[in-house]
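Cont'd.
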Amino acid sequence: MEKPKQLIVEGKRLDGRALNELRPITMKVGPLKRADGSSYVEWGKNKVMASVYGPRETHPRHLQESDSAILQVRYNMASFSVEERKRPGPDRRSTEISKVTREALMPALFLGYYPRSSIDVNIEVLQADAGTRCTGINAASLALADAGIPMRDLVVAVAAGKIDGQICLDLEKNEDNFGEADMPVAVMPRRRNITLLQMDGDLSPEEFSQAMDLAMGAVDHLYEMQRTALMEKYRG
Amino acid sequence: MGDSVETANRALVTPGALVARGRYKLEEGVFREGDEIFSSVIGLVDLHGNSVRVIPLEGAYIPKPGDRVVGMVTEVQFLGWMVYIHSPTPGILKVSEVPYNFDVVNGNLEDILKTWDLIYAEILSVNELMQVKLTMQDPELRKLVGGRVFTISPAKVPRVIGRKGSMISMLKRSVCREILVGQNGIIWARCSDPRQEDLLKTILGKIESEAYTSGLTNRIKSLLQEETGFGETQATDSGRQEAGW
Amino acid sequence: MQEVLEEVKRESIRSLVTDGKRADGRAFDQFREITYETNVISTAEGSCLLHLGDTQILVAVKTAAGEPYPDSPDEGVLITSAELVPLASPDVESGPPLSSDKYIEIARVVDRSIRESKMIDFGKLCLEKGKYVIVLFVDIHTLDDGGNLIDGATLACVIALMACRAKKWQLKDGKPVATDQTQPLPMGRVPIACSIAKFGEALLVDTTHEEEIGMDSKIVFGLDEGEHIRAMQKTGSGPWSREQIKAALELARRTVSDLRKKLKLEAAA
């Protein structure tokens, strides 16, 4: 698609959303039978599935830690998840996202309860439309809770950004491609601890502050969605 | 600053939910930050007396001393065996913990237990490195021969046992006499008729998927009545109370 | 460690089969329930999410323009791959070759059924002989391994291809360009795969994951609408006698015929 003349027309974005509006999100807990914990999240056109295996014996053995579990995260995009088919397998982008996702989830987990074991998180992007790392983190948080891994708090994630010079929430694909900044954030809602923060683009300090406000403003809503999805599995 | 309860007893909570404030004794599924006590898992709040805990609805088996488990020998080692107990770290059973006069010089460990043998053992100790030691020093602990193995989520084991053992007694009376329920979620049964083992599997499946609903005990009783012609006639109260929560 | 637990169940499964039973109460020639949804992935031209009992498989089809194989300069190309997805089972670890050969086998066997049954009329996928043809990428993504991945994947691929709204490619200034129009793929016969697992003398259809641990081995039969065999693969160790293979083929033919009626999987005239 060629760059549209405007991404915001009369206060509304190309998909009809207001600047501070999230895309439609659904969350489901426990769709996979073999995993210890799992979840499926649809966020706008993103479709992401997450699974958790563990705590279990660490493979390979030499990675184990004597006083706590290790957390291994694998973020992967299916070859068909993007318009231009992607070659299967990890690339540098997914390696980086795996790392920052792991660092976003670690502070929430009581890893010390399971020395010498491993907690393995898999995030599989089945369909992508910008914001997959945030969707993945929400999915991983649900899957970890579903697996019964003790957590200090759930972890939510959302991105804010800048398009046509204006700060807005939750960029979709065209906005991400043609906008001026994209800033994913992950938060442990109870104490507002930020466990992931990345940005690419151009933001002045005021713009950064506005973007953070927008992102933090969505935290409670996402927290409530995760809690509802978890409880729905049992209330069903 | 007084003690206060912030969630109803038996409420379903998610990780990070505020459960209570003050000087409660902490049991499983909760942690303290300053004056506040939060849930660490998805589970049911349980306040009794001065203690608070959240009973997890899911989760791996974490061995505790005194737990009796069903396990499988995976390796014969030096003066003992490594045993799979369905938990993040395996259990170690030393030959000194087996009631058998073992000749250290001439004896063959495989004469006692070999790989793939099923055993009913007890957790002797767990250290801070999660190294688990097992024992079989009790007449009830033994090698298990024949029979069939079932697994359920360890969190659901209390439901299979029932309050004061009521559910498991009922199953032993109405389905099959030889049933051993491991705290680790592995259950072994040896029935005289394979249909009994099928029935047991159906019941365990029901318990696994309906553990947190009320009236489960009654539904199981009806099922038993239909299938075996045995059954109890008294009704019981709400499902959750049956498990002693 | 899950593997250990499964070994514990192996003997149970085998003794059940000896008694003529299966853990989930099915008959030996009974398939689990199959449900599916098509076109669930909007970034793909065709897709199918299939449930076969506890097994969940997602297949997506995408087209591209590319070079033909040298020995078939006027035919389109089919590339089938099955991705190793750690979501699906505790045994899959990202990387080690041991688990990945299972997935490579799945892709190749599924590919064979589709290719050899001439399900797609590749002759109609040529843009310029010797230079440009349509390449069909069929990607199999196992989400939950509840057993019988090959049969499930073949079915999901077939359904995804049948539901595919492929981009229409055209030559513009000598180069292939995708237009906004779509069209169905040129279809031929529709293959169905049926794997028969052997437990001693007993033959079982549609094995669960646990049954696959307990079996001797299995043979996959890829059958077309005339019930001709288009592909076969013995997978797993454990030898078969000729009589056993003959019996297995019979069982496969009957089962496939039932499945076709149930799922109404016939190609359009």
